[in-house]
């Protein structure tokens, strides 16, 4: 059995994009991502059982994937669970594919997302900003509509208060819920009832957690969407990579990122 992951090369330290490309270049690591795509939230034991490798080798590959931001881990008691984070792949798509291909590339990405359903989805992204600016962008209606396809969120942002998401061209609220935990500028936990269609409203109440952690001159933002039914439709959670990519672009450049969501729902 194989017993090791490739070590970083000599020379200049790679940047975030290089780390993602390096992680994806190895077929074993791609196989691990495929395993998490098929069944998210697996433990090290579960991932090892599905591959012809030792636990040490799998752990090394997972370390490289976590370093690249492609895998995010969480703990439940003594168990450590690993989750696929598609945000870096979405950013690669926006930088290296969208500018060279026709608009149908976004439709293909959306089709891939429709194949995935899980009880919990975890998304992680690094943004060059301060916790205070990031918190403001999440809670300010005018900022929110710049990266959430023209939709804005309204609330007084106190614990136990309600919020509602609206769009000027929608004939009903898009979502509503309660602010369960409000800890600026570090953590926001919300219940979520999506109401933009009868199908998603029938899924009931889910939960969204925004965790902000300062890292040098940047912030790590982790969004966890959980309490999802096993058969939840992808439209309930599939927009997060586009929203978070748009949030990063808005805070770092002041520009609105073009995504399939912004083309479909944004100002025409």
Helical residues, percent: 25-40%
Tell me the major beta sheet. Answer: 7 strands, antiparallel
Name the average pLDDT: 85
**Anisotropy-based shape:** globular
Helix-strand blueprint:
Blueprint: H1 16-25, H2 27-38, H3 44-49, H4 55-67, E1 71-76, E2 79-84, H5 87-97, H6 104-113, E3 121-127, H7 131-139, H8 141-147, E4 152-155, E5 162-166, E6 175-183, E7 187-194, H9 198-201, E8 206-215, E9 218-226, H10 240-253, H11 260-265
Features:
11 helices; alpha+beta; 268 residues; single chain; globular; disordered N terminus; Arc Repressor Mutant, subunit A; Alpha-D-Glucose-1,6-Bisphosphate, Chain A, domain 4; 38% helix
Describe the protein in words:
With 268 residues, this protein is of the alpha+beta class. It folds into 2 domains: 16-83, Winged helix-like DNA-binding domain superfamily/Winged helix DNA-binding domain (Arc Repressor Mutant, subunit A, Orthogonal Bundle); 90-265, 2-Layer Sandwich (Alpha-D-Glucose-1,6-Bisphosphate, Chain A, domain 4). 38% of the residues lie in helices and 24% in strands. It is built from 11 helices and 9 strands. The protein has helices at residues 16-25, 27-38, 44-49, 55-67, 87-97, 104-113, 131-139, 141-147, 198-201, 240-253, 260-265; strands spanning 71-76, 79-84, 121-127, 152-155, 162-166, 175-183, 187-194, 206-215, 218-226. Strands 3-9-8-7-6-5-4 form a 7-stranded antiparallel beta sheet. Strands 1-2 form a two-stranded antiparallel sheet. A hairpin with a 2-residue loop joins strand 1 and strand 2 (79-84). Helix 1 packs antiparallel against helix 4 (55-67) and helix 7 (131-139) crosses helix 8. The chain is globular, with a radius of gyration of 19 Å. The relative contact order is 0.13. The model is unreliable at 1-14 (pLDDT under 50).
């Amino acid at each position: 059995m194989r017993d090791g992951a490739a070590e970083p090369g000599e020379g200049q330290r790679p940047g975030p994009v290089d780390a993602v490309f390096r992680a994806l270049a190895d077929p074993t690591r791609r196989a691990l991502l495929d395993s998490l795509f098929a069944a998210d939230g697996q433990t090290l034991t579960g991932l090892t059982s599905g591959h012809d490798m030792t636990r040490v080798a799998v752990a090394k590959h997972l370390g490289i994937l976590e370093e690249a931001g492609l895998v995010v881990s969480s703990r439940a008691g003594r168990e450590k669970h690993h989750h696929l984070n598609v945000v870096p792949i979405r950013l690669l798509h926006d930088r290296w594919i969208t500018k060279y291909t026709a608009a149908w590339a976004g439709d293909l990405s959306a089709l891939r997302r429709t194949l995935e359903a899980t009880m919990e989805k975890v998304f992680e992204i690094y943004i060059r900003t301060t916790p205070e600016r990031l918190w403001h962008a999440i809670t300010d209606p005018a900022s929110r509509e710049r990266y959430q396809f023209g939709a804005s969120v309204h609330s007084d942002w106190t614990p136990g208060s309600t919020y509602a998401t609206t769009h000027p061209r929608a004939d009903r609220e898009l979502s509503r819920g309660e602010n369960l935990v409000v800890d600026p500028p570090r953590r926001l936990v919300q219940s979520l009832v999506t109401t933009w269609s009868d199908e998603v409203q029938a899924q009931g109440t889910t939960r969204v957690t925004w965790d902000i952690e300062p890292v040098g001159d940047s912030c790590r933002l982790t969004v966890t969407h959980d309490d999802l039914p096993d058969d939840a439709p992808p439209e309930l959670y599939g927009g997060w990579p586009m929203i978070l990519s748009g949030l990063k672009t808005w805070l770092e450049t002041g520009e609105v990122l073009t995504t399939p969501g912004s083309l479909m729902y944004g100002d025409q």
